[in-house]
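Milestone M4 deliverable, item 7.
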Amino acid sequence: MNSVAEKLQAAFGRFQARDLAGAARLCGEVLKDAPRHPEALHLLGVVRLAGGNADEAASLIRQALEGNPRDAAMLENLGVAQFVLRNFIAAENLFRDALVQGALHGQLYMRLGMALASQGKLADAVAALREAAVRSPDIPDVHLNLGNILAERGEAEEALACFERVLAQQPRHPAAHFNIGSVHRSAGRLEAAEASFSRALVLAPNDADTHNNLGLVYERQGQPDKAASCYRQALALKPDHIHALSNLGNVLRELGLLEEAAASCEKALALRPDFSDALVNLGNVRAVQSRPEEAQALYERALLIHPANADALRNLGALLRAQGRMKEALVCYRKGLEANPGQAELHHDLGTALRDSGDIDAAIAAYQKAITIDPLAVHTYYNLAETLKVPGRFDEAIAQYERALALKPDYTRALNGLVYLRQHVCDWNGIDLLWERLRLGGIGKLGSGVSPLSVLYMPFSAAEQLACSREWARSNLGPLIAARSGLRMDAPPRTPHARLRIGYLSWDFHQHATSYLVAELFELHDRNRFEVFAYSYGPDDSSAIRARIRDGFEHFTDVAGESFIEIAQRIRRDGIDVLVDLKGYTLGSRPQILALQPAPIQVNWLGFPGSMGTECVDYILADPFIIPEGAERHYAEKVVRLPDCYQVNDRKREISAVTPSREECGLPAAGVVFCSFNQTAKILPDVFARWMRILKAVPGSVLWLLETNRWASANLRRAATEQGVAAERLVFATRKPLPEHLARYRIADLSLDTYPYTSHTTASDALWAGCPLVTRAGETFASRVAGSILINAGMRELVTDSAAGWERKVLELATAPGKLANLRQTLDRTRDTLPLFDTPRLVRNLESAYVDMFHAYLAAGRT
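Output delivered:
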């Protein structure tokens, strides 16, 4: 074997037999005698390329081309070397040169396609690979690579067809099964993806990537234990698999194994400090660990690497939103959508931030866009429903709750929202079954998301109401309570003040029922002993009541544009001793501020008739009737009882001097006028049935209700007809300014109460205007407020303890005009001396309670 041709033939044979060392030795012998021999240089270059030395291969093949510059094979193999070296433009040009020289085989077109794809020229890459498939339909890799690029372009069905062609040729091709699984996973077809990845593992059980991807499927199926097992298997095969490390960290966080989760993400980052997925996942762990500053720093590191990283932007937005930093959260979501306009979750989260910022129309549009992209996302339907009900689009909101429940029948949040809204529109069809379904599926259960406000309107016990509040607080306030030490909160002042500093926190300092109760309180505080602050985070409607409340405080601060943390820091800097929350869990509330513990003593009063169920609220203010001795077990707070009624009233509440006529109000000229100007959500079927029995028992009587929404009015008229009462005996009053509204009570004979959520402001309005009220007291706070109001108005006889007793009392008064007249005269004669309307007396009692709370705080040695 002395000739060059024989040596080269032998070298090629050794190469085909994978004897790279033997092939290189023979090529070297040729080159020793003929250093510029093109075929020897080319073959040695191919050998080096096969051995993983692409740099040397490129140098050798380039030398070979000096002797044969138009050799298509040399051009193609130099292109392969450049491709391996990631010089994709050079590889593309070399493959095109090889095509010009007549190498038109399918594999060359496939290589050109891969070089184009690597530059992001996906359309050109698809064209090249389609040509490759035509020319070499029997090469599986051609179809495999074409399928991969089609999948990257979002052409999932065509991609699947390509992978199926691979399997038609090689049924045991693990990469084809893997790629089919990847397409199904991206499309959300999780069962099909699981089956494909499982088949791939049968064929290649030691492939770490397949174990990792199967874990992703299990994670999306809500099987974190199985997912963790897959990630651990991937790491057993490949300990430095950074994706498996990061994914394991993510699923361990879901399992509550936070320290292990953080360690797994940190291992991934030790291997690659710029690995965005691990930065985001570690940020998520830190957020759950209530270390928000660390979480934010990790998200921001990920965004420095990839400014359009959707997960980093979304999670940073969520972190900021949880702190009430809505403007910054909105910036995150909008940046995310600029780069990822098709991501439904970003549209959803943008909608939530917009809703929390008060931009309801934009929030609705964002949720609707999210649904267009992902019509199976139940939480989007739920949040769209929650948003639609704010502007009173109740029929649309009910439809969205029902869509959510159709997709997920056990979705307690949606069930709760549906039931509550059905009560608002007085649609009682099957309402008893819905209450029971909610009781069995949600009240107080972990993660139920049932609104503590809504259950006050439903026939649930005090124990159930407390359980609901506890769970809501655990889920919504727990993270902030835990994060207090990790947030840079200014230290509370420790120097005693000359006057006790009282802060009032509310959304209601505008035209709102609460404002009309509390306005005089702020004017009457003893300024020699108390320094009084207001923190208003609600709208400024420029109303007279807003101006009066603002003027009633020494310090009035509009904090509507500030985050929870900023407001809490402000309260701490102001050195508030006793912070009184006037909202609880009612509309517009921000209990997150209380979770940050900005004041040493925090009080739940007036706005929310029940327990807030959280450790961050120290006291609830009540009175001896509302929370009788022995009922403390239903409240997470310490109970402080004011001596008289817990409800404050404003003696300056104006009643119009002009009393409307019955005709002007749409009422009959004669007959008893019963009224109930409560929210329609308080009207339950059994209460309405008793009202109808009373109307039938009192000929010529009518029931005067407040028109709150058109659906409720229609449904109530229909229900009256079904119970044998003419629809026209229900008269609906339109909304009027408060002085005009109060004047309407002068032409009503008797106010009928609701149950179990009784009249609160409505009760004191009626009595202030001289209209008696009959109530029924139950076990819950909300069911006893009207009773307390009546007792402190000297009318204990109008407080009953049963439905039958309530009905009897109403009929007794309605059929005895003299008794009703006496009651009205008594109210008119004694109103200004009643404890209920003795505002200075209540203010003194309230101030004494604040002082006692502060002394108890000092006595306990708390600093």
